[in-house]
């Protein structure tokens, strides 16, 4: 069984988003109260060992970035703003490539499963409706898993 260093991956994505200027707030986990402006919630979707050698592991760690924007104050503006933020984050993630640390690269084409993608929807948070974009960000991570008997 492998124990993954998931915390480092979540913190790397949160730190990237907080520094990017694309969102007002980047947090790990879903908000408990209505967020302001464009807010990002980061959470894990899946982890797996993608390759195993005698000395190391290569993991696939898939992170979801959920972007929130008020849905109905101006629906057209919400749609356009979320589209721009998704485009900017995607561009930056692909350009940054490794995000430092043990993250080898963003698996844009889905070499180890799913590729970089986004899906739009609506979510109610504390009685306020939000337009959301869920970005699926697959990451190839080097040697974060510790193997136990």
Describe the fold and architecture.
- This protein has 149 residues and is of the alpha+beta class.
- It has a single domain (2-147), classed as Phage tail protein-like (STM4215-like).
- 25% of the residues lie in helices and 43% in strands.
- It has helices at 6-20, 75-96, and strands at residues 2-3, 25-28, 39-52, 57-70, 103-106, 117-125, 128-142, 146-147.
- Strands 2, 3, 4, 5, 6 and 7 form a six-stranded mixed sheet that branches. A two-stranded antiparallel sheet has the order 1-8.
- The longest helix has 22 residues, at 75-96.
- It is elongated, with a radius of gyration of 16 Å.
- The model has no long low-confidence stretch (mean pLDDT 86).
List keywords for this structure.
single chain, two-stranded antiparallel ribbon, STM4215-like, 149 residues, 2 helices, 25% helix, alpha+beta, 6-stranded mixed β-sheet
Indicate the topology.
Layout (H helix, E strand, L loop, with lengths): L1 E2 L2 H15 L4 E4 L10 E14 L4 E14 L4 H22 L6 E4 L10 E9 L2 E15 L3 E2 L2
């Amino acid at each position: 069984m492998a124990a993954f260093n998931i915390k480092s991956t979540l913190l790397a994505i949160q730190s990237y988003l907080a520094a990017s200027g694309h969102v007002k707030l980047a947090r790990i986990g879903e908000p408990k109260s209505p967020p302001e402006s464009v807010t990002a919630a980061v959470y894990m979707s899946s982890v797996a060992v993608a390759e195993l050698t005698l000395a190391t592991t290569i993991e696939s760690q898939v992170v979801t970035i959920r972007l929130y924007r008020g849905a109905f104050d101006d629906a057209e503006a919400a749609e356009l703003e979320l589209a721009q933020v998704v485009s900017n984050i995607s561009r930056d993630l692909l350009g940054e490539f490794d995000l430092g640390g043990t993250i080898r690269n963003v698996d844009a084409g889905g070499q180890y499963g799913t590729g970089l993608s986004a899906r739009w929807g609506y979510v109610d948070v504390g009685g306020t409706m939000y337009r959301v974009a869920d970005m699926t960000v697959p990451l190839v991570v080097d040697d974060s898993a510790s193997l136990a008997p």
